[in-house]
Structure formats: C-alpha cells, structure tokens
Design a protein that fits this description.
This protein is α+β, with helices and mostly antiparallel strands. It has one domain: Malate/L-lactate/L-sulpholactate dehydrogenase, NADPH binding domain (Ribosomal Protein S8, Chain: A, domain 1), CATH 3.30.1370.60. About 45% of the residues lie in helices and about 20% in strands. The strands form 3 sheets. It has a 7-stranded mixed sheet with strand order 1-2-3-12-4-7-8, with helices on both faces. A 3-stranded antiparallel sheet has the order 10-9-11. Helix 1 packs across helix 2, helix 2 crosses helix 4 and helix 4 runs parallel beside helix 5. The radius of gyration is 20 Å and the shape is globular. The N and C termini lie close together (about 5 Å). The model has no long low-confidence stretch (mean pLDDT about 95). This is Malate/L-lactate dehydrogenase.
C-alpha cells in the first residue's frame, strides 16, 4: 500500500475524485496538481492527507464546486471575490491575476474574499516566485491560538509565507503558521494515535498537554510567545480586515471560508533585475557558506520534489489506506 507511485498517476486519480464532487475538469486538474505538489515538497500535513476533508466540504456545499470568481481592480490592488472556491483554485488564480497586474505596476496587493482553505501557502508563493515576483501571502483562520491560562482560543493560527526568485536556483520559499506547530501536525498525530511534543498545545482548560485529541479540543500555542501572537494579528489586519464587507460582517463566520491576502512585487521596478539578482546571489552565498548544514528555505522541497518526480512518490501507509477507502467509496479505485 506504501509503494512508490508516479505523481502524474496520483494527480489524475485525485482530479477524478474532485470531479465526482461536481468540480469542472480544469478546476479538478488544478486542485489535484496543487495537492500533489504540496505532498511532493514535504508539506505532508497539507498534501494528500487533506483530500478526504476537502471532499467532505464539497459534498456538504461548504466549498463551492463551481465558483464564479470575480474581481475588482484598483491602482496597486485587486479585490478577488472567490465565491467559495477551494483554495487550490482561488490561490493560483490570484497569483495569475497579480502577475498580470505586475506588467503595468511595481507592486500589487490582492485581497481574497470567500476563499476556501489554501493549504500550504508556500505552494502559492512558489508559483509567484517561479513567475519572477517576490510574494507574501497570509490567510486568517478561526481562533486557534492561546497563551497558557487563556479560557479558550483567542486568535487564528494565521499561516504566512513568502517566496522570492533566486537566479539560477530554485526560489526561496518560507512558510509557517503562527503556532509552534501547524494544526495539521496535531490532526495527523491524533489520526495515528500518537502523542505530540510538549509546548505545542493546551487542553480545553488552558493547561499544557501532549495528548493530540485534547489539543484539538483546546488551543495551539503561539511560536515565540507574544511574537507569534503579534504576527497573527498582522495577518488578521491584512487578510481579515481588508477583506471585510458589510455583508461578511453581518453573516455568521464560516470556518470553511477563510479570507486571505497575496502581495506581489516586481523586483526590476525597484533595484533593477541585474542588481537584485546579484544582491540575492551574494547574501545567499554568505548564508550557505556559514555551515555545512546551512540551507535556504525551499531547497529541501525542491530536491525532494525532483526526486519524487523521477522515482515516484511514497505515501505513509495510513494515508494510502485512507485514500484507498475514499476511492472505494466514490467508485474511483486508488492506483496500486
């Protein structure tokens, strides 16, 4: 069940799964590509393990399988109404809109309304970096973070990422949640019946816990204490408040829909491309020369993606079993 499979085979199967949920073929293929690429680059908590939950949300109409996305352009900005689209559809669309806008402007901020879970934000900023732009992205989530002693979750764990092109090399891609560990790691531990490390989470009474199930009933702890809370607040301002409208403020807040922001910058509009590329080369060379173990964020992801595309991808047995069960349920047999 855990033998290597070619990524294209898994992509095609995943697309067919989405199509059984009413997702149009082109959207199904793009969403499948994003999920599989997340898996290939090591985002295990945001890759194929998310497929079953996305299917459940599509079936429950919490995600819109056939969104009619619209946008409003303004100087230096775009307001994208994603119409309940999966994040794996809305995110790449936002990147394409922003890259097109950079043809005539130095910088563009895209605010994404009514957007589903974006998954690994680093995949979206990677797309922007591969298009030649510096990018930053954040998505606000329902309250999940708390400090020890809090009566409950106080603010979202609000993931944030950036991507930057690096001439002649794979882009730099940095992706973190504002929690010590992403909630996906806790979900995976609970699914596998494993404990979580100390310092990751609090139980429902605000006490530290290593029980993954108790953690899911309680709160995540912020990275670096108040510093992580501060970054989560920044994401609330950019991804939440800028995307707010009278209608969204009046409506009940849906856990399935999580507004987001995407900011792109065209490097050559500032320093000029040659100077930008040379500066990036110099500081990254100093960094990686400082230790045999030093590596830039994104290097490992690029290496393991290349390896998997050449030799096949291997899924954890528990995830492969879940996917096989999902395929059987939907009449789309999982490839052996």
């Amino acid at each position: 069940m855990n033998s290597a499979r070619h990524p294209e085979i898994i992509e095609a199967w995943t697309a067919r799964i989405f199509e059984t949920c009413g997702v149009p073929r082109d959207h199904a293929a793009e969403a499948a590509s994003m999920l599989v690429r997340s898996e290939l680059r090591g985002y295990k908590t945001h890759g194929m393990t998310r497929l079953a939950s996305y299917v459940a949300r599509l079936k429950a109409n919490e995600f819109n399988p056939r969104p009619k996305m619209t946008y409003r352009a303004l100087p230096g900005g775009i307001v994208l109404q994603a119409d309940g689209a999966m994040g794996q559809i809305a995110g790449p669309y936002a990147v394409r809109l922003a890259l097109e806008a950079l043809r005539t402007t130095a910088s563009v901020l895209v605010v994404m309304q009514s957007c589903g879970h974006l998954g690994a934000l680093g995949i979206h900023t990677l797309l922007a970096a591969e298009g030649g732009a510096f990018s930053m992205m954040g998505q606000h989530t329902p309250p999940a973070l708390a400090m020890e002693g809090f009566r409950g979750p106080a603010i979202g764990h609000n993931p944030i990422a950036f991507g930057c092109p690096l001439s002649g090399q794979a882009p730099i891609v940095f992706d973190v949640a504002c929690s010590v560990a992403a909630r996906g790691h806790v979900l995976l531990a609970a699914r596998e019946g494993k404990p979580i490390p100390e310092g990751w989470a609090l139980d429902a009474q605000g006490r530290p816990t290593t029980d993954a199930q108790h953690a899911l009933e309680g709160s995540l702890m912020p990275m670096s204490g108040h510093k992580g809370i501060g970054i989560a607040m920044m994401v609330e301002c950019l991804a939440g408040a800028l995307a707010a409208s009278a209608a969204s403020l009046a409506a009940p807040r849906s856990e399935a829909m999580q507004d987001a922001f995407l900011w792109l910058v065209r490097p050559e509009a500032y320093a000029g491309r040659e100077a930008f590329d040379e500066y990036m080369r110099q500081w990254t060379q100093i960094y990686v020369s400082a230790s045999p173990d030093a590596r830039l964020p994104g290097m490992r992801g690029d290496a393991i993606e290349r390896e998997a595309r050449e030799h096949g991808m291997t899924l954890p047995p528990v995830i492969a079993q879940e996917l096989a069960a999902l395929g059987e349920q939907l009449g789309v047999p999982f490839p052996e």
